[in-house]
Structure formats: structure tokens, C-alpha cells
Amino acid sequence: MKQSNQNKLHMLKEKSIAVKDWIMDNTKIVMPVVLVVCVLITIFVAINANQKEALKKEAEEAAAAIAGQEESASVEGLSTPVYELEENAYPEINNIIKTYYDAQASGDVETIASLNTYLNDIEKIRIQEMSKYIEDYPVLNVYTKPGLDENTYVAYVYSEVKFTDVDQELPGLKTYYIGQDGDGQYFINDGTYDDTVRNYIKEVTLQDDVVDLNNKVVVEYNDLLAEDDELNEYVAYLKEKINEDVGVILAKEETPDAEEAEGEAAEEETEGETEEPGSTDDNIVTTVTMVKATDVVNIRTSDSETADKIDKAQIGQEFKLLEQRGNGWSKVEYNGKDAYIKSEYLETVSEETVVDTGSAEAESTDADSGTVSGTVTVKENVKVRTSASTTADSLGTAYVGEKLDLIMKQADGWTKVKYKGQTAFVKSDYVE
């Protein structure tokens, strides 16, 4: 057995020597064949590697696409493209905004109505009354994003208003939807667009750059009022005064004209009749104001950004306005209870005037009881205080022309009045 294995090894050795000798004798034929085989092996390895890389890349792209779809599905309003917020990018739009705001400052309702397709009679009166207190708008910056259709824009107008009796200018931000008419002229449309446009404005307004702009203006507004008591008081007074004046004008429009009323009074006097209380001059005018949200905004339990949230108001949602406060908040009725919304996010929808013709004689004339016995008119701006002393705490400022409910004129030079629902005092020299 051992001899057999040795014979096999000897034979293999001889064959290997023979192959070696053959290769050495035929080198010119063998070497090219070997080279070709090596090249083929290299190509095979490269192709295999490329296929693996391509498959890996395709897998990565597929995974990224799936992740993108999942992310897109989680983003509300994905269908609304995110455009950069442009500042003063369109001179034509800036010009129409300037014309519009100049008209507001001058009370030019005709010009405003020609630019704004949504302007009811109450807003016309409000604009005319407000213009009495506005000097101009020295700062106007227009921020825009494209609208739904060609040549339409969502415009956010930053303004600073200069009031005639106040040194400090007050900032504000308002949203408009601007389009073109058949002649290519731009116009402002802030109320007649449909739900599709309204939802588009809502989604655009929730984009980060618009939210940042809005927050910046709100902070600027609130800081100014917090730092300047007189400005705060003036803003509160002005809002109340405008609402009151608008209500009086609407009430007069609903009553017989003055000449007819005078004729009837003269006829009654001629017949020897005594005019009963409850004439127009004695009427108590109350204005019920409805407002709507111009943006998605929190409804809170009190007038503070740290107060508890009750709900979110949606664009176009209406509320009964109970009070506009000088700190930038409005008290509204929500689900039968008092609630608070930032005033910047509300605009007036309608106002209904209610005239109470109750007898003036029904009011108590007992001054010591703290009830009203008539009114006094402010001759000069005067501080309203908690007691009859110049060192007493101030409750606010009464302005020229403002009427205060009279309780009693005192011998010490002070007049006791009702002011914002509480007993207060003003110097008698400043009222009549």
C-alpha cells in the first residue's frame, strides 16, 4: 500500500514537471490567455459591486420618499405652498395701501369705498368718526405672500398711527386680500372672499414668518401701552368714544328729523300740553357690537397671555363685544360667559343701537345715596380720582367733551361722579 502511494506521487510530480515545461515552451500563448481571464474576473467583480451600490441607493431613496410622505401627511395645510414673506416688494400695492390709509386719516369714505368692495354703513360712520382723532399714518410697511390666483396677494400691513392729541405713535397690523379688476387696477377685498380664500389666508397666516411678524407687532403694541399710562388711557377712551358716537349717529338716523320733532313740540306747546319725559334728549343709547375673529386666536379666561385657554377662535367666528380694554384685550361673550381675546385679532361686523326711552325722573336725586342725579361735561382733560384729593389714586383721565354721571357737586371744589361703574371725584373747575 505504501509502495502504491509513492508511485502516485511520483506520477503527479512528473506530470507537473511536464506541464511546467509545456508552459515554458509556450509562454507566448499562455500569458495572453491568463491576462484575459484576469480582466474578465475584474470586470465581473466591478459589475457586481456597482449593482449592489445601485440597489443600495434605490433602497435609500425609497426609504427617504416614504419618510417624506409620512412627514407631509403630518403637516396641516400641506397643499398651501410656503412662500417667503416679502417686504415692500410691489410699488403698486404699496401705493394703493397708502391711498387707502390716507383716506382713513382724512375720513374720505368715497375713496375707501372705491378701493374696498366690502364696506357697510356702520364702518363708514366709524371711519369718519375715527378720522377726527387721526393726524396721519407716518409709517406703512406692506408684507406680501402670493394669493390663490395670479395677481392676487395676501397683504399684512404694518402701520403706525399718529393721533392728533398724542405724541407717541401706535403700531398695528392688519390683513387684506388684494386682487386686480378687469382693467388691471388693484383693489382691496377684506370681507367678500369665499371660504376657499378664507381658508387659504388662514393657512398662510399660520406660517412661521407671519406668526413671528404678528407676535412682534403685538409685543410692541402692548409694551407701549404698559410703559405709557396716558397713551393707555387715551386708547381706552378713544375706543369707548367712537362706539358711543357711532351709536348716537345711528340712533338719530332712526328717529324723526329735527325739524319734524320741533314742529310737533311747538304744536303740543300751543295746545297747552306739557311735554312728557322720555324725549330724544333723554333717551339712553346702547350699542350692541358684534365682532369677528380675523385670525386663529386663543380665547382666554382673563386679559393676560398667561391666563387659561378656553378655546380657539376661528377666522370669521363672531362674538358679542362686551368691552374693549386699553391693554389691547377685548371682553366678549362666549358660550354665555365672559371671555377675552386680543383686540388686534377682532374687527367689527355689525352694531345694533338700542334706545331706552325710560323717564329721566326715574333716576334718584338723592346725592348722598351715591346714585346719579344728572350729568356733567368735561371742559378740560382731568384726572378722575378715588377720593376728593389731588394725592388720591387716579382711576383714569376724563377728556374734553366726555359726559360723566353726576352724584353731587361738593363745597370743597370737588365733584362726585360715577366713573366706569364706581364712585369717583374730579375737580369742579374742569366740569360744567
UniProtKB/TrEMBL annotation:
Domain SH3b: 286-350, 371-432
PROSITE patterns: SH3B
Protein name as catalogued: SH3 domain-containing protein
Database matches in SMART domains: SH3b
Keywords: Membrane, Transmembrane, Transmembrane helix
UniProt keyword Transmembrane, yes or no: yes
Signal sequence, start to end: none
Renumbered residue ranges of the record's region Disordered: 254-282
Residue intervals passing through the bilayer: 29-47
Record's compositionally biased regions (Acidic residues): 256-279
